[in-house]
Amino acid sequence: MHACHIYRITEFNYSFTTEAGIEYECSFKSYEEYFRNYPAIASKVFALDLYLINSKQKPSPGTDKRIADTVITIVGDFLNSMVNVVVYVCDTSDGRSRSRARKFKSWFKYYEHPSRQIIQLSTDMEGGGITLYTALLVHKKNKLKIQFINAYVELTDVEQK
Amino acid sequence: MATAANKSKTVIRKKRNAKAVPLTKAEMVQKMLADQKLIREARQNGISFEELEKTYGFKFARLPHISNH
pLDDT category, A102, cuts 50, 70, 90? Predict the structure, then answer.
């Protein structure tokens, strides 16, 4: 693993800087409100928010590969409790959500990598004419993984209104 | 002197009610994106997580120390 140096960890977020000097921040927001039909697991679902803090600089297309390792390290640590799960919703604001989804998906497909402890389930969620690219990340040893997966599939089901 | 009612008008978005109404799929998608954008922009403007929790009713995970860096 060649993770970026995570220079700051606060109660709420991780921060790191790429080789190009771009600063990212990562936090986990509760998604309990979307899983109210599943009271046993609702409080354990969190959305991963990953965003540029120093937004004056734009990342180059040949992105720093260490970003992937850094995010895997952060998410892996968060999931290591084997209690919580993470939902990732690709940002659609710049019209690059599809490529972002593809990239994110590849990060958790590494072979012989710490991410092998993480199950990834990716699916699209549609509503109001918008397609969201989403992924559920759950630790393989999470005892409630089947409940999380079922709830996530139901949440993202296109047939559901 | 500003009244409580006037003060509340300055809040861009009201804190969520404790009893939430179930959202439709379309509302859910829009809300997920809107919240994501709000948090990103707020953080880029230096607004603290505590402030985001207090003002908008978000709840953020308290993080463990990272083990392998």
Answer: confident
pLDDT at A81: 87
* E strands, A2-139, in order: 6-9, 13-17, 23-30, 45-52, 85-89, 118-127, 130-139
3-state helix, strand, coil in chain B (%, to 5): 50, 0, 50
Q: Please tell me the least confidently modeled range out of A54-58, A134-138, A150-154, B22-26.
A: A54-58
Nearest to A53 among B16, B24, B43 (CB): B43
pLDDT score of A115 = 58
Q: Is residue B26 one of the residues assigned to a domain? A: yes
B51 in a domain, yes or no?
yes
Nearest to B24 among A27, A155, A161 (CB): A161
Note the pTM of the prediction, 2 decimals: 0.82
- CA dist list (Å): B38 to A3, A145, B52: 28, 30, 9
**Domain assignments of chain A as residue spans, ordered by start:** 6-156
Average the pLDDT over A82-106 and give the result: 82
> Nearest Cα to A120, choosing from A131, A130, A110, A132?
A110
Is B32 inside any structural domain? yes
Cross-chain Cβ contact B63/A10 below 8 Å: yes
Selected residue with higher pLDDT from A63 and A86: A86
The mean per-residue pLDDT over the stretch A112-124 comes to 75
Chain A residue with Cα closest to B35 = A29
Cβ atoms of A142 and A82 within 8 Å: the answer is yes
How many domains does chain B fold into? Answer: 1
